[in-house]
Amino acid sequence: MDIDTRLLRYFTVVCEEGQLTAAAARLFITQPTLTKQIRQLEAQLGVQLFQRSRSGVTPTPAGNALAGHAAALLESWDGALRATRQAATEAGGTLRVGFEGSTINLVGLRTMEEFARRMPGWQVQMRQNNWFDATSGLASGDIDLALWHAPAAMAEEFGTAQLGIEERWAALSVEHPLAARESLDFEELLDEPFVVIPVEAGHWRDYWSGAEERGGRPVRIGAVAHNADEWLAAVACGQGIGFAPESMNRLASRPDVAYRPVRGLSPSQVGLYWLRERPLTPAMAAFIRSCRATVGIGPAGQTASNGAG
């Protein structure tokens, strides 16, 4: 029987936390998603792993038996991955970098040439972030680094190499009455329908609908988009407005979408993120330095210069 190591990691965190809510927060996924994953593991094994109560969850005898082996299995698998990546480092390999929609345009030929100079024989594979995974594939090991526009608090949870700071702007149909304005106030947008991303995206759904600035006031959902193209199309069609990095005004411009500054909305920390418990590999460090030397942040595309070398 083959078991996804991600399910074992989820199971281990639930055992450590004793609560699904706390475990989901630590894993950066929603509680319903975590519950679904635990039930999937139970179905595959054909046993009940947890006793559920109002105070939390407790491993069953079967759960305790699995917990006694899961940590060793995961440690062994992580060791195998480290050995594999180390061998690849010595012989050349592929660095997998996730990106958000149009932000791929922040990374261009100059970045790749700089990386190739630092890591001869290596290639970079760019992958669009998965909106159904709050870690964009970092937790599953599908990517090595994620290029994010993120709240400042993300630096407390992940390893971070900051590239710059960028404002969040409103995106709306050019037919929207507010599109005639040069700038907007956040309070004006509270009752507007929003094009949101899937609930599985966890904290990202909240962030891109301005949840912190709303002070508990719920967002009105006009449409749910499953990828960046769907999101932009829904905005253009007037199904709702949304917040986006300021750079989308130049990187993803289209005649039926207007981008406007928003007063009262905190900016994003633009950077490369990785799992805090995973040490930086030489390839990861080289890509960070390459981005710091070449990536432009902000409306004029200023080149970041913090620590490039």
From TrEMBL:
<dbReference type="InterPro" id="IPR005119">
    <property type="entry name" value="LysR_subst-bd"/>
</dbReference>
<dbReference type="Pfam" id="PF03466">
    <property type="entry name" value="LysR_substrate"/>
</dbReference>
<dbReference type="InterPro" id="IPR000847">
    <property type="entry name" value="LysR_HTH_N"/>
</dbReference>
<feature type="domain" description="HTH lysR-type">
    <location>
        <begin position="3"/>
        <end position="60"/>
    </location>
</feature>
<dbReference type="Pfam" id="PF00126">
    <property type="entry name" value="HTH_1"/>
</dbReference>
<dbReference type="GO" id="GO:0003700">
    <property type="term" value="F:DNA-binding transcription factor activity"/>
</dbReference>
<comment type="similarity">
    <text>Belongs to the LysR transcriptional regulatory family.</text>
</comment>
<dbReference type="InterPro" id="IPR036388">
    <property type="entry name" value="WH-like_DNA-bd_sf"/>
</dbReference>
<dbReference type="GO" id="GO:0003677">
    <property type="term" value="F:DNA binding"/>
</dbReference>
<keyword id="KW-0805">Transcription regulation</keyword>
<keyword id="KW-0804">Transcription</keyword>
<protein>
    <submittedName>
        <fullName>DNA-binding transcriptional LysR family regulator</fullName>
    </submittedName>
</protein>
<dbReference type="GO" id="GO:0032993">
    <property type="term" value="C:protein-DNA complex"/>
</dbReference>
<keyword id="KW-0238">DNA-binding</keyword>
<dbReference type="InterPro" id="IPR036390">
    <property type="entry name" value="WH_DNA-bd_sf"/>
</dbReference>
